[in-house]
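User: structure tokens for this one?
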Amino acid sequence: MYFASNIQSLDLSIEHQHIPITNRLVVKLLLFFVIACSTNPDKDRSHLVFRYNEDGNITSLDPAFSRNLENIWATTHLFNGLVQLNDNLEVIPDIAKQWTVSADGLVYEFQIREDVYFHEHSAFGKQKTRKVIAPDFVYSLKRLLDPKLASPGGWVLQNVEYVEAKNDRQLTIKLKKAFPPFLGLLSMRYCSVVPHEIVHLEGSDFRKKPIGTGPFAFKNWEEDVKLVLRRNPKYFERDGEGLTLPYLEAVSITFIADKQSEFMLFLQGKLDLLNSLDNSYKDELLTLEGKLPNKYKDKINLQKGPYLNTEYLGFYLDSPSPVIQSQLIREAINIGFDRQKMMVYLRNNIGFRGDRGFIPKGLAGHLKIPFLEYQPERAAALVKDFEKQTGLKAKISLATDPNYVDLCEYIQRELQKIGVSIKVDVMPSATLKQARSQGKLEMFRSNWIADYPDAENYLSLFYSKNLSPAGPNYTHFKSATFDSYYENSFVINDADERDKHYQSMDSLAMSEHPLIPLFYDQVVRFTQKEVEGLGLNPVNILKLKKVRKVRKPL
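Assistant:
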């Protein structure tokens, strides 16, 4: 029933407060009375609790450690930065209401809003809060470079010469050299503003007692069990009608590792969001065409959209193997298997076949025209040419982790038809990453998820100065022409011109087949019918400030 579900939803806050059991019963009775008697949905917010599960757990609520998606989601609810991305990946104001960039692309001047407050904390004094000022950003950004903190986000500032506050409302950031995607970097959760006095007071405990400015404030975290956030009544953003955000009263996050258990809780209506598509239940929730089966159409919603993640197979081009060194073989593999069939039968059509280079769909610079068509006859002819020229058989070892065995075995079977023998080596994910970085694998399955929404992020994997293990160029692709294009991209300020430049770079790298794009991923979300206003974005960030939950019928 509706009333019972509201009382149960409020348990998440009552049970975590130090209230005697007898008093808790009184509180619950009073809450029941308020809910039962309330006829004004704007005053009765007690049912507005959004619940989701993080099977990967959360390791820190400090934005300086928002490296993985689980941490990024949680800190997105709690913190703000200078700028933010909308669902179209456009940089828009956040705490900085406006900014200017110098003609040479080196100096960024930000004007800070005057109505942004930190979440309440006794250390702020009688007011229990204070306004955010420009020096807070100086502290927060410089903190990322503190060797004692050892934040994984320090690289974001590697091109910054200095950060300074001219006064409480003006912030200046100067770069060492022009970098057009810099505003996108600042949208990352690493660059959130934090209060220096609370960080100093809490020390290492700031990871579990965060104070930010976001739409939700920290309430309680029982690690490995549940995290509870409550609505920030002083949040500065408003909707199009001038109403204060967020609409929700609370966010409740559980940490259930078992995918099947998470799936069952979602079907039972105990979770509002399912943000995964595990092999164990993908055929239950999706048809081969990637749609909801009829039995679920009236019960849940499905959201799909481009995700900035390219899944690929990479060749280690410094391998002594003549097979890997052969561009004939690399091209044969790229055109020797049916990507569309792979997407239908192994992915339930979630994602887009990888036939247009390395830059994924959903990002400016993505190639418009497919050029990696399925051509088994030509592929087989290329393999025969290689064997005739070298007298060798086309044999390759392909390394993967357990999550992608089915996909690699599919490619193994397909390539056998064109004369390429693939041995699939399955190893733990950590082992695979280490071996890939150290150049110990002939061929490997991997992926690249964007750190920031600019195609430079993907093209950096082909830059010769980024060779692994120091950088992300795991294939050890080297091209003086590409390097020149890459370095020139930083002085192109016009967005359209830069996108065309990126397309030329992608085509140039892919013409030598250093890797095999498999597919460009999709964000897939399942939500309860009661959830409204949940946007979808190509970086798969969960934003709850504009989400509503409609009342269940009595």
